[in-house]
Amino acid sequence: MPTSPASAPLSRRTMAYVLAGGRGSRLLELTDKRVKPAVYFGAKSRIIDFALSNALNSGIRHIAVATQYKAHSLIRHLQRGWNFLRAERNESFDILPASQRVSETMWYEGTADAVYQNLDIIESYSPEFIVILAGDHIYKMDYEIMLQQHVSQGADVTVGCIEVPRAEASGFGVMAVDEHHRILSFLEKPKDPPGMPDKPEMALASMGIYVFSTRVLFDQLRRDAAEPGSSRDFGKDLIPYLVQHGKAVAHRFPSSCVRSSDEAEAYWRDVGTLDAYWAANIDLTQATPGLDLYDTAWPIWTYAEITPPAKLTQDGPGRGEAIDCILSGGCVVSGAVLRRSLLFTGTRVHPGAQLEESVVLPGVEIARSARLRKVIVDRGVRIPEGLVVGEDPELDRQRFRHTESGICLITQPMVDRLGL
Questions:
Q1: How many helices (H) and strands (E) does the chain have?
Q2: What is the reported pTM?
Q3: For 396-417, how does the pLDDT look when each residue is reduced to its tens digit (9 = 90+)?
Q4: Topology classification of domain 10-285
Q5: 213 among annotated binding-site residues
């Protein structure tokens, strides 16, 4: 990476390295065919598009994505939607599947190993800084601000963090910090997360975002790779080591969260469960949602399919109606009624059908007189005529994936078992 003037943004001397190999098992059948970062979100995007868009909008022009499990859908999306970064403009976009480059028997053993196995590729670009990103969260963030804090505080690692309810913090790395933001302790996914001194019901949790100077990262990855018994993981191994033996600093997300005039609070979501995924999508149908996808100053880049416009039409005695809904390109709603629902590309809804608080992924066809409430419909599903979901919890549990809060996931194999 050519040397930039001292006055240039730090992002131009930075590579973003996105970890996108997570199985996403808590999304159950929704990740049967795709890894969590490749799951659809917001009517036209994939989850990974948020981390990638943040990097691009922050000014970072060298991006790498490490993939592993069920990666075909993700790789295809990245090839179609993110191939505009050009080497002739001093830009790069690398897709790095686990390919046994270090050993014929080794896949990526952990998040740190997913970077370690590709050190030669990173080194070929000579970045001064590395931003390590999780590819499975929904948020808007300016990484340049985090980079500036990293440099100004002379940190070995800077960890992005957010306040979460203590009862929910056991799925995160939890830290304690001093008045200068230095991390004093770091516990990865503790069973009993410690609360914050001034907010005992809240915990300071890692977002899975780390800034390193490249030299420090390389030294730590090589040290960890030679350490017997290491799990080769940032949260379990590298970050706790640097807390004890180096200078680890916390970066508070609200200070770099990108908000439009319509966003009142710092928005960050882990949509790793069916309930959380459904709620985050349905929230977008509100008049003023927590996340503004219409902010042209910070666009969410994605693969833009060429589709005809959405169409809402009357068919026979029925009248097409959509209230508080999002309809993506290629959708046709004929004589059906939709309320607080989100339809992805190419969905067809036939006369007499009723949808309420439904998240419908691309290419779904909903037949006449079907009634769906509080559902997630997987890509390409054919909903039979007259099918009713969301009105009888006990029947729904027998036929579909039903959560404790009453959300139903519908996949084609589940529909096929009905024999309708």
A1: 10, 27
A2: 0.95
A3: 999 999 999 999 999 999 999 9
A4: Spore Coat Polysaccharide Biosynthesis Protein SpsA; Chain A (3.90.550)
A5: no
